[in-house]
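Researcher: Go.
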Amino acid sequence: MQRIGSPPRPLALHGPERSRDIEQRAQARLPPHTLMHRASTAVARLALALAPHAQKVWIAAGAGNNGGDGLGAAIALLRAGKQVQVTLLGDAAKLPVDARDAYSRAQAEGVVIGTQPPATLSPQDLGVDALLGLGACRAPLGRMAELIATLNAVPCPVLAVDLPSGLDAFTGRPLGDSCVRARHTLCLLTLKPGLYTAQGRDHAGDVWFDDLGVDSSNTAPDAWLSSASQTARAQRAHAQHKGNFGNVAVVGGAPGMTGAALLAAHAALAAGAGRVYVSLLDGNDKTAAMTLDSTRPELMFRPAWWLNAPDVIAHCTVVCGCGGGDAVRTVLPRLLSNAQRLVLDADALNAVAADSALQRQLQARAARGLLTVLTPHPLEAARLLDGSVADVQANRLHSAQALSERYRSVVLLKGSGSVIAAPGCVPHINATGNAALATPGTGDVLAGWLGGLWAPDVDGAPPEHELAFNVAVSAAYLHGAAADSAGVTPIRAADLVERLLQPGCS
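Model: Structure:
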């Protein structure tokens, strides 16, 4: 068993269909009830570790095998000296075979099994949610919804078995108005993607994992949970110079939004780009244009940089759209035609969504060997997909993959559990970050940081399309890790750039 925080290696995430396949194959080669015995033991062990001073443990058990896991755990907890009360939802005679065996053993052990929750629980006690498992596919109603509401109201921590009841295992969205908010979730056999994206992290709390002694590595995952191991950056050789680390051009910053472009440029510098050019979309009055950032004098301002010769544009990693306003539409055709590595963010994405000609130009880049990373938030993604935010958030993995296929680009769909997708790749869900990032400008920082990581030409790097995907995974991870390490809510975007320079992020 392990606590899953920021994992040291990528972890496979399996949705309901593949999880059931893994379970069925394991049951076929193991003695009867083995998996449920292992699951029950794991639940009891974690319950004792999380609430060692609890006198009472309340287990809300459903009518499926998730309830059977809870009944089996009740036996171990009773033997450990806890006062255990099980509230069983459903007819014991209709329980599945494994759960019915657990029910019979619990009765024989003297576990108190009834239909009502305990009258009182203290803050040091423990509630266990074993109501719904992997098979949940509709909104909890009636008595089920009442028990979920009771679990959410108890004064003590709640441990969810496999999934918080009412949460979709694949998408991370609540199936209805009733969904358990657990302090801890013990995921069993496989890690589920829904625990890490959309509302999953809010409902799951701290996630723990026990594979129950079953190797699932021969089953392709639905997604990967990204890890610190994917953020390794090449050591700088002593004889290298700034020219070895690439050029970044930030194109954005329409009147009144200059700060967005500067935040992206600061982040590109922090990521290690050799040179960073800033080309502001602030009109044609060059006498009024910004020529120096006194806080970062390393930045080089280049009015109308996008009008350079195609080979000059191709030589830079371009970050376009941060604070671009409507003015960004005029520069996109030239950048889409010539930029070898292009990050499109914010207003650049809105411009593409509103212009079919720009969409066709973006879609054509991949066939010409040009690489693009899109960094939309859910509203921008909805515009690009001709849908709604609700559609995007209903299945973030599907939405990110659909975007990547439509525009033949790497997509970094921002939000809780950012999703990184690319055509032909298994998507990644980012393991880091928190609501401290919900402040103005943090997305601009991410775009610039990504551009700065992407800029160097590294010996032995994977093919360009793989490199673009890997850089997006790394940028999202480090961006979130910087917020996790800050201990500040909210975090200001300019401060986030400085956090990115701290050990573990730079």
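Model: The longest helix spans residues 464-486.
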